[in-house]
Design goal:
The chain has helices at 3-14, 18-31, 33-51, 68-76, 89-101, 138-148, 187-195, 210-229, 233-257; strands spanning 58-62, 81-86, 107-111, 123-129, 149-160, 201-207, 265-271. It contains 9 helices and 7 strands; from the N terminus they run H-H-H-E-H-E-H-E-E-H-E-H-E-H-H-E. The longest helix is centred in the C-terminal third of the chain and has 25 residues, at 233-257. It is α/β, with parallel strands linked by helices. Helix 4 links the parallel strand 1 and strand 2. Strands 3-2-1-4-5-7-6 form a 7-stranded mixed β-sheet, sandwiched between helices. Helix 3 packs across helix 9 (233-257) and helix 8 packs antiparallel against helix 9 (233-257).
Length: 272
């Protein structure tokens, strides 16, 4: 499946007003299990920084997409400067216009390549969600992230694993998302790559365990397939979620709270 055309359709709908875009971010936070996992880890990180009396002054959103993580972080850290990079000119322009309209002046989106962009020792945090599976030169990106972090700064990554990530379960099977250049990471491999590219400590865990796999199909895979098949499904979508989402919500909560021996996603945290 080509994911970008669906994202463009959604963007056309939700970019019409700031209210609709905020609603869109809220829906992503509810529906996307990766948002649950990333926000869970970021809350823990923010609490630790607060307890250690370490202010957060600068954040880098690497491969920002729609900007939902920048929106979440800028709401909780209004004093922090946030630099968000993405390769799509139109998406960057839309995000800059939105953040200007809601007067979050410390947020700036730029067109850039995460394998090349770096600001030495500039950031307390680098956020990289749904990016590594899209780029061939992943170690170049990791070097740029470590170079751009301050000493003690943290990188957080969410990416598919090789345990069925991208909905690939057998050798030779194609990825559900056609834009992916790799189906998923081996957990030991991504830890090793991170450590040899400028990081002193790394932790990695599986996400999208048994509950998350079911939730993803209910809340994302099946609706996206139907949206791709026909625009008419936009009319049916609210009624579908009235039935499906309470189940997906419970499954998401279970997935975040459980430790998984395996899973189709990975959450990686690394410190410089």
């Amino acid at each position: 499946m080509q994911y970008d055309p669906v994202k463009r359709r959604l963007g056309v709908v939700f970019n019409r007003t700031p209210f609709l875009r905020k609603l869109f971010y809220g829906l992503l936070d509810l529906l996307l299990l990766r948002c649950w996992h990333i926000q869970h880890e970021l809350r823990k990180w923010l609490l630790e920084r607060s307890q250690q009396n370490k202010p957060v002054t600068a954040i880098y959103d690497a491969g920002a997409g729609f900007g939902q993580y920048t929106y979440w972080l800028s709401g909780r850290l209004p004093q922090a400067n946030i630099t968000a990079i993405d390769v799509k000119d139109e998406q960057v322009a839309d995000c800059n216009a939105f953040f200007q309209r809601i007067r979050r002046q410390k947020v700036k989106f730029e067109v850039g390549d995460v394998t090349k962009f770096q600001k030495p020792s500039a950031f307390d945090l680098v956020v990289c969600v749904d990016v590594m599976e899209h780029i061939l030169e992943d170690e170049a990106a990791l070097r740029c992230y470590s170079t751009s972090l301050k000493e003690g700064g943290m990188l957080i990554i969410s990416t598919p694993s090789d345990q069925g990530g991208s909905d690939v379960h057998e050798e030779g099977e194609g990825s559900f998302i056609e834009e992916h250049v790799r189906d998923g990471y081996n957990i030991d491999d991504i830890k090793a790559k991170t450590l040899r590219n400028g990081f002193s400590k790394v932790e990695a865990r599986y996400s999208y365990g048994a509950p998350g796999k079911i939730s993803w199909k209910l809340s994302m895979k099946w609706p996206l397939l139907m949206l791709q098949a026909s625009k008419l499904f936009f009319i049916v979508l609210p009624f579908y979620y009235l039935v499906a989402y309470p189940i997906a919500f419970a499954l998401n909560m279970a997935d975040v709270r459980m430790a998984h021996a395996t899973g189709t996603g990975l959450v990686v945290k690394a410190w410089k």
